[in-house]
Amino acid sequence: MPTFSSYDGTALHYELLGEGPPLLVLPGGPGMDLRYLGGLGGLTDRRRLVLLDPRATGRSAVPADRGTVAFTEQARDVEALRAHLGLPAVDLLGHSAGCLIAQEYAAAHPGRLRRLVLVTPVGRAAREPDEAELAELRAARSGEPWYPDAAEAHRLLTGGGLTGEAAAESGRRTHPFSWHHWDDARQAEHRPEHGSPHAWLRAAYYAGAATPADEERRLARLAAVRAPVLVLAGASDGLIGTAPARAAAALYPHARLELMDRSGHRPWVEEPGRFVELVAGFLDLPDPADLNTFN
User: Using CA atoms, how far apart are residues 238 and 133, in angstroms rounded to an integer?
Assistant: First the structure.
């Protein structure tokens, strides 16, 4: 089981999958075990994936200082992994909440980043999800057999008052909204062992943008990134919608937004062929200016 010691001595786990030039991959959640990413729809045929279990997640250790779990701090772990692997520069992919760490790394270490891929990014790094868009996406699924139960669970969650296992169970019932198509195979993607057992982790992770002033300063730093950026959004993503992805793409001077029509929050599962071609094609571009002709 490959591990390395990060800047503060915390032991972090990572996995190597596939062949080709390396691509560092950060899972979402926060608190999702890297195993839910699998081979990213077959991207392992084109790239050597270096998948990291973030601190306090999966098989990585819980740090002595819980404050270092904040997404603004975890870019230091990415840099420690880059150094451990002996890479002069990296291509970096983040999914969902992992995009926050990826974007922070891009801003903090511009000379070490070659290309950045943001897959269904959450808010905070640009702007929060558009609740009107989310309501429309969810209402569009009203003809599905699972809709009444998922809609009721969403009502209970947003109404407040749920804690512990009751909140977790309602969250599980809303999972169909995250997918373009919900079936037995999609249900298998939401295995409980892929989530964090640490109840404190989510609050600690998002403490990196605690105030509006913090967020404005962060946005200014992100906007200074000059590396090429590919942003992927799922058109059916009823978890976060497409607004954060659109805002993230608009933030960067060399960014391309791709909307995947038959995908929700995990496009490598629902449109694996297109996902691989988009990501690998982007990473293979020789020059940022080629974004103008990328398809």
Answer: 9
